[in-house]
Write a structure and sequence with these properties.
The complex is a heterodimer. Chain A is elongated, with a radius of gyration of 12 Å. Chain A is built from no helices and eight strands. In chain A, strands 1-8-6-3 form a four-stranded antiparallel sheet, with no helix packed on it. Chain A has a four-stranded antiparallel sheet with strand order 5-4-2-7, with no helix packed on it. Chain B is α/β, with parallel strands linked by helices. Chain B has a single domain, classed as 2-Layer Sandwich (BirA Bifunctional Protein, domain 2), CATH 3.30.930. The chains are: A mainly beta, B alpha/beta. At the A-B interface, strand 4 and strand 5 of A face helix 3 and strand 9 of B. Strand 5 of chain A pairs parallel with strand 9 of chain B, so a sheet runs across the interface.
Amino acid sequence: MVKVVIPELGEGIDKATISYWFYKEGDKVNKGEDLVEVVTDKATFNLPSPSTGILSQIISKEGQTVNIGEVIALIEEI
Amino acid sequence: MELNLSRCRFFDLGLIDYPTAYNFQKEIFLKVNNGQLYSSVIFCEHYPVITVGRSAKREISFFIKEEEIKNRDIPIYFVERGGSLTYHGPGQLVIYFIFNLVYFNKDIHYFLRWLEDLGIEFLRGFKISAIRYPGYTGVWINSKKIVSIGIAIKNWISFHGISINIKNSILENFKLIKPCGMDITMTSLEEILKKELSFIEVKEKFLSFLKNKRR
């Protein structure tokens, strides 16, 4: 399983809110493609998929606030 | 690595409808993304339009005077930028920054503060003392907002940007919405300076200010 982690977004930014999942659980995702959009301050940030595989679990739903470094989804590599 | 503003491409689309400018912005984004273009800046002025960013937490009807907006034929677009909702119209300078944020240490906070500083420094040129309020991104003069900010980032390349209220005429339609989803009063450069300004001259001034700025 590959963990999808909220990366460092900038100094003093310790949280972000999930604004949009480009895929749903069970979908195939490709490495480097937009996977999830998060919003912080007045910016949205598209996080690409870290791996190619099946998006097996979305841990953090849209609207949920998450910490930097938090695991928000799992991808089963294929 | 520092952003070299003199290497940036500057585009001026003039008065243009929102969707056409949006498509142009996306074209430039793709070129910056694949390395065909260095970071770029797009200047424009929009026909009346309301845009809603991703941070609008409630139904849009909560933030706008729907009937009046319909009567005035103002379109509403939902876009992928951060921030809530705003109004664009003639008399407001809109500047889109298609920047590779590698030059900003891949730091969103740093980039947003840089955009605020840009507005603050530009206004200082008019002897106006503008400020930022931590937690309320934008540029303010006392309790009124003059520069709004909303960006999107993909592959660490930014798009969308800032809008600066120049003419007094821009303020009327702002009364139809709750800017940023809050009870905010907007102001304009003309209102602060208490005199009429040429939009084109202010735009030229900003362009030369930006080109000569050291990151």
